[in-house]
Design goal:
Aspartate Aminotransferase, domain 1; 2 domains; Aspartate Aminotransferase, domain 2; 11 helices; globular; 4-stranded antiparallel beta sheet
Length: 340
């Protein structure tokens, strides 16, 4: 009954998340979750948390997570902003830095146009090259946002290309969404001191296996962090709960565990790419914890349904240029064996 909705709520097309199928025998390769458990150190913090503390409000700035991120990236805490998942951080960033004509690739994280439309921000889509790489010198606007590696393609830009985008947009904020950077692309956080227009958004859902906790942070020079704080404190001063702050801080500081998990996923990914190619798939080069693959003799939609019938869920985007592709999350070796 749309008469009870605002015009914006009635007309907007919201983001569609991946399916969340139920069942213990399901192999879930459709939402880019980490197949391995979080850091044991993080789980110890979670299990030891004193529940009576929940009567108190959490630190509004992210508390121990902000301190941990500053330590890991070698920056002061005023370079770090913490939020309730990267979707919240990105949504706040759209409001903090973009007034209109923000640029992002035509094939990328499909939440970007949703935020732009929700907040009344005009945008321009920059077509990817024929090989699905980002055309670096075309990425110009009154603000730029892109994922590196890009989603759903998995293709990453190198640091020199990202610097060109920063230099070409020196008067506007460039947001680099590093949701999957731990799986091969690497972070461009060392560029933060050099570029006052660079904001990096990082999530702990994938690399640190904390998707269920909803934790993320942004990294940038203090004037950008202050902009995010202004928007946050006009919406929700306490976005990240006490349990999340402390558990995520322990996970972030356990760098050896995170690195070992990522290396394991990378090894499985490279083996999966080879095995998919051996049975006729075209697989794009990936620096993420997923692959983007198509087969010349079978439609992606039909393959998705066939896999679902066999208890394996992957992602299909029925959109121009990519409707023949499946995005397949990298699971355990045993899960990928069954997929093949």
């Amino acid at each position: 009954m749309t008469q009870y909705l605002s015009r914006r709520a009635a007309t907007i097309t919201p983001y569609v998340a991946g399916e969340q199928p139920a069942g213990s025998d399901i192999i879930k390769l459709n939402t880019n979750e980490n197949p391995y458990p979080p850091s044991p150190k993080a789980l110890c913090v979670l299990q030891a948390f004193a529940g009576e503390r929940l009567r108190l409000y959490p630190r509004p700035d992210g508390g121990s997570l902000r301190s941990a991120a500053a330590k890991v990236y070698g920056l002061s805490e005023d370079h770090i902003f913490c939020g309730n998942g990267s979707d919240e951080v990105l949504g706040l960033a759209f409001q903090a830095f973009f007034d209109g004509d923000v640029a992002f690739p035509d094939i990328t994280y499909s939440f970007y146009p949703v935020w732009a439309e929700l907040y009344g921000i005009s945008y321009k889509l920059v077509p990817l090259n024929a090989d699905f790489t980002i055309p670096v010198d075309d990425m110009r606007g009154n603000g730029v946002v892109f994922a590196n590696p890009n989603a759903p393609t998995g293709i990453a830009l190198g640091r020199s290309d990202i610097e060109r985008i920063l230099q070409n947009n020196s008067d506007h904020v460039v947001i680099v969404d590093e949701a999957y950077a731990s799986f091969g692309a690497g972070t461009v956080a060392p560029l933060i001191p050099q570029y006052p227009n660079l904001l990096i958004v990082s999530t702990m859902s994938k690399s640190h296996a904390l998707a269920g906790l909803r934790v993320a942070f942004a990294i940038g020079q203090p004037h950008l962090i202050e902009g995010l704080m202004r928007i946050k404190d006009s919406f929700n001063s306490y976005p990240l709960d006490m349990v999340a702050q402390e558990t995520a801080a322990a996970a972030l500081l356990d760098e050896p565990y995170c690195a070992a998990m990522s290396e394991k996923i990378i090894a499985t990914r490279e083996n999966t790419i080879k095995r998919l190619a051996d049975i006729g798939f075209r697989v794009l080069p990936s620096s993420a914890n997923f692959v983007f693959a198509s087969h010349p003799q079978a439609s992606a939609a039909a393959l998705k349904e066939y896999l679902a019938d066999n208890g394996i869920y992957v992602r299909h985007f029925n959109k121009p240029r990519i409707y023949d592709y499946l995005r397949i999350t990298i699971g355990t070796d045993a899960q990928m064996d069954k997929l093949i």
